Amino acid sequence: MRFSLQLLVVAFAALLCAVSPTDAKLRRGLAWGVNDNYGPKLAKGLISWYWHWQDGPNPKFNGKLQWVPCFWGPKYQSQWEQRKREMKGNLPQYILGVNEPEIPGQANLSPKQAAKLHMRELEPYARKGVKISSPQMVYKTEWLQQFMKECNKLGCTVDFIAIHWYGTTKDMAKLKRWVKTIHKTFNKPIWITEYGVTAASGPNMNAIKRFHMDATAWLTKVSYVKRAAWLGCFVVNNPPDSYANNKNAFYNDNGSLRDIAHWYMYSSKPVKRSAHSNRALPSSHVARRGLTHKDEDGNDIVDDDDDSEPPEHIIECDEYCQARDKAIADFEAKNGPISEEDDLDDDNDDDDN
Ligand SMILES: *[C@@H]1O[C@H](CO)[C@@H](O)[C@H](O)[C@H]1NC(C)=O
Known about the structure:
Elements: H1 2-24, E1 28-31, H2 39-42, E2 47-51, E3 66-67, H3 77-87, E4 94-95, H4 111-126, E5 131-132, H5 141-154, E6 161-167, H6 172-186, E7 190-197, H7 205-221, E8 225-230, H8 259-266, H9 283-286, E9 292-294, E10 300-302, H10 319-335
Parallel strand pairs: 1-2, 1-8, 2-3, 4-5, 6-7, 7-8
Antiparallel strand pairs: 9-10
Helix pairs in contact: 4-5, 6-10
Bound molecules: 2-acetamido-2-deoxy-beta-D-glucopyranose (NAG).
The site of 2-acetamido-2-deoxy-beta-D-glucopyranose has 4 residues, from loops.
Organism: Kalmanozyma brasiliensis (strain GHG001) (Yeast)
Keywords: Signal
Signal peptide: 1-24
């Protein structure tokens, strides 16, 4: 009896060791939101997980990507009931909390309401060992701080912080300072479950690609950012709303992949972009449209088109950006300047989340 228990413990430890390295690499993901049939093209390379807001898993991924369910909020309670049925006997590793709680058109909840819901809908899963995110906040640190207080009072579990971020292609430094502020404020691992460039900032395609890779590479390397999902799972002329730039798209209108998707799938360093990058090409080539390359599987890749006009009124720092700037300034006034140093995690050996 004793012997077999020991064996079991050893086997279990071996299993843990076998699982951890794979889990540690789970970083880049998809905020899924387009024709399910387009899925298999993207479920490759460095992409390892996805979420789908209130909706269910995409069967076309054939289990290649890890599915992360989300409790969107009361507006989609019936979809959540369906997710709960799916999770019976098939517990996920992670669940995401409510979607953009401080935005009127989104989950739109007070911290108190959200904490009660978290306790009712998510805490039972925390007790079964599932790791649970905070509500997926956009800009309002006070909202999340209040939520954490309410949650503590009720005794609920928040394993990691989930946030969304949109800005301009010039905002790399702002993104870093924001993520650092969130980390210092909440002291938990972070997932960025949506990020991208705003439509109103009106950048050209090359600027978006460059930002996409710089931001993704940085988020992938920072030790406490565990996962990130660029909001690009839509076809270029049919973005999910008018806030995010349509050029963030991973798909052409016919469902073929855009260059930006190939970078996301295959490039880990901005200095060594994919073979499809036109940064390495002479400038005469950069302007050429319809230039094709081959990806690892031998598929033809066409440079992303850039034929849409910039908006009439360019907005560089919108209300969310201003609120984040203020939160960073407030944090620095209280705690001293945010360090320029990055807490990098080159060997990816932390499998916390
Ligand atoms: C799909 O659309 C892209 C971009 O417009 C184009 O380059 C490509 O040739 C199209 N592919 C097919 C199979 O029509």
